[in-house]
Design a protein that fits this description.
631 residues, 6-stranded antiparallel beta sheet, 18% strand, 5-stranded mixed beta sheet, 17 helices
Length: 631
């Protein structure tokens, strides 16, 4: 059978003999009727013209959009929302009495530099639900460039401001003791947030000036550029935090609140209706009240009157200071977790986790060996993109570590090389992020206790095993390693049934025995115990006796309780001086515990999988959380 081939087309030649591309003979596709350009003779006249245009616009809107058109439409909508957010942020500054727009010639004549404006945009996410914040998801903030302002003042020959550049916020240990106590006594928790707080403070320095945002330029009638004259503090200025702290503290002191001695950023109120406590973090505050909310309601009403009714209140808070709060009032449990922070980190660095895929990462002994072998890389010039990603993962996980003690050891290994991460650190960081994502809903649960886990205070003390929760009373466990390469000490403080503080630190000194390293760990634990006892006194729950510090080193326990027991350790006996003074004052006592029951063992060394689970469950009160969820 013969196959007839199609005749070969002859190339199209130009007059000079050059081959030319053959033009397509397919007629052009006509545009839809609504997109045709009408002839002059067909232009509708009179009242019919607007009607025809409206109908054409409707037909065009019904046409399917391409991906580029959809993306352009989304960007246009987002730009409109951000522009509105920028205007709201500028209005917040200009609404303050004294703040106004003036020509740039005004500060120039006074010899005062104009601070640069930095606009920060943020989409606020609800840490409890993972969705957009219900109050104001698109948040813009116009801030002064405080760092460059100091350079500007130095160039202009102006003296530095005499206002302090520091402010006080509640620390992590105090915040956990605060919510743990609220869970134990079934106190009412109320969260408040003062909107646009810094501009509501009283300025203690001279009047300042800041340029307008680049997205909102303005001029006067003569065409002269305008700037903002500031009679109030502003975000970014180095003294703004201190000025707001003074304003807020003076306001609540006028309402009857008193600072708690020895505990920064905590206040107490004692009145005829009962007592309450408050902790503050810049413009956020959390109030705990046992019997009703009478004191809370009166305080919030007066704060709204003082700050132009711009105080957001949540009587059943689900988040605070980055924590997600889950509470069961019936069982008296309260859980702190950070699932949304972990999801955000995974979305940025390991998006396959969000798709349900399981990447291949280091685990078990391979992970431990890789983490122990990390060394700083030779840094020449800028860091590589992979090193920057490694630093970002470590930064994300250090924030999450506050509620995930199992990450402490591997993150300490990574933190030691964070300034110049080697290539192997990226794989270790990915493995740590994968572990955190697998347990993103894990946290620390306070309350829900029974009498099973009572601590026996004799020299051969024991706790009710790692299979139970931590005691109700404040207890410290200190452990250390001594191997010559990387000497560490770990501390675990528990109260109200779970950890209120856990950390791993490097021993920067040269020690010549495990006994000396354990002495350092016990002394550091004594420092934390002294402050934690002050917090408990401020909460109205003072310890009933000396706080126990657990140690698994017999020599350390003997010398701590009796300096005469030191024979070959006299050269570092001074390390016990402060600890023994605390013991003599009745603050603490060092107690021996067996190695298999040491709660802080997993913070300083790689322990078997079974003991790691028992230790973490003990520190996080996992059994109470399981009961809370009905498991």
């Amino acid at each position: 059978m013969r196959v007839r081939r199609a005749p070969r087309r002859q190339p199209h030649l130009s007059p000079q003999g050059r081959r030319q591309p053959r033009l397509s003979r397919v007629p052009p596709r006509p545009l839809p009727p609504c997109r045709r350009r009408p002839n002059a003779s067909r232009v509708p006249q009179g009242d019919a013209a607007p009607r025809r245009r409206r109908h054409a616009a409707r037909r065009e809107a019904d046409l399917p959009r391409t991906r580029q058109q959809e993306r352009a439409a989304r960007l246009a909508r987002a730009d409109a929302k951000w522009e509105a957010a920028d205007r709201r942020a500028l209005d917040c500054i200009l609404r303050v009495p004294g703040n106004r727009l003036v020509p740039v010639t005004v500060p120039a004549a006074a010899g005062v530099p104009i601070q640069r404006c930095v606009t920060a945009r943020k989409i606020k996410i609800d840490q409890a639900t993972g969705g957009l914040d219900q109050h104001d998801p698109f948040k813009s903030r116009h801030s002064a460039d405080g760092g460059f302002a100091k350079v500007q003042r130095a160039r202009a020959g102006l003296p530095p401001s005499g206002v302090p550049a520091t402010s006080t916020v509640v620390d992590d240990l105090t915040a956990k003791l605060f919510v743990g106590h609220a869970a134990a006594v079934d106190a009412h928790l109320t969260k408040g947030d003062v909107g646009n707080a810094y501009v509501k403070a009283k300025r203690q320095g001279p009047v300042g000036y800041m340029a307008l945002p680049s997205t909102l330029p303005m001029t006067d009638e003569d065409g002269t550029e305008l700037c903002i004259e500031l009679c109030s503090p502003l975000w970014g200025e180095e003294c703004a935090g201190y000025e707001w702290e003074c304003t807020f503290n003076d306001t609540i002191k006028g309402l009857g609140w008193v600072p708690c001695p020895g505990v920064p950023a905590m206040f107490s109120f004692h009145g005829e209706h009962g007592e309450a406590r408050m902790i503050t973090i810049v413009d956020d505050f959390l109030i705990s009240e046992v019997n009703g909310t009478t004191i809370t309601d009166a305080t919030i009403a007066k704060l709204k009157a003082a700050f132009n009714d711009e105080v957001k209140v949540d009587y059943s808070p689900t988040s605070f200071a980055g924590f997600k709060l889950e509470r069961n009032r019936e069982r008296r449990t309260l859980t702190l977790s950070m699932p949304q922070k972990i999801i955000e980190a995974a979305r940025e660095h390991m998006p396959e986790l969000l798709r349900g895929e399981r990447p291949t990462v280091l685990s078990g002994k391979r992970l431990a060996d890789a983490a122990d072998s990390l060394k700083l890389a030779d840094r020449e010039g800028k860091l590589s993109p992979q090193q920057v990603r490694t630093q970002s993962i470590i930064g994300h996980l250090k924030f999450v570590e506050r509620v995930q003690p199992r990450l402490s050891l591997v993150l300490h290994r990574l933190s030691c090389v964070m300034s110049a991460p080697p290539p192997e650190a990226y794989e270790v960081a990915r493995a740590a992020l994968c572990t955190a994502y697998d347990r993103k809903n894990d946290g620390i649960t306070y309350g829900g206790l029974d009498a099973e886990a009572e601590l026996q205070g004799r020299m051969s003390a024991h706790i009710a095993g790692l299979d139970s929760h931590a005691p109700t009373e404040l207890v410290a466990a200190a452990d250390a390693t001594w191997n010559g390469d990387l000497d560490l000490y770990g501390m675990l403080l528990t109260c109200f049934g779970a950890a209120v503080m856990h950390s791993v630190k490097k021993i920067g000194l040269v020690v010549d025995s495990s006994h000396e390293s354990e002495a350092i760990a016990s002394a550091k634990a004594g420092e934390l115990v002294a402050y934690a006892r002050e917090v408990l006194v401020a909460l109205g729950a003072p310890p009933t006796g000396p706080t126990v510090i657990l140690s698994d080193n017999k020599a350390n326990v003997l010398v701590a309780n009796n300096a005469k027991s030191a024979s070959r350790s006299r050269h570092f006996l001074r390390r016990y001086h402060t600890l023994q003074r605390r013991m003599a004052d009745g603050e603490c006592r060092v107690v021996k515990i067996t190695d298999d029951l040491m709660p802080a063992d997993f913070l300083t060394k790689w322990v078997p999988k079974e003991k790691l689970k028992r230790s973490v469950d003990h520190a996080s009160n996992a059994r109470a959380r399981a009961v809370h969820w009905g498991n």
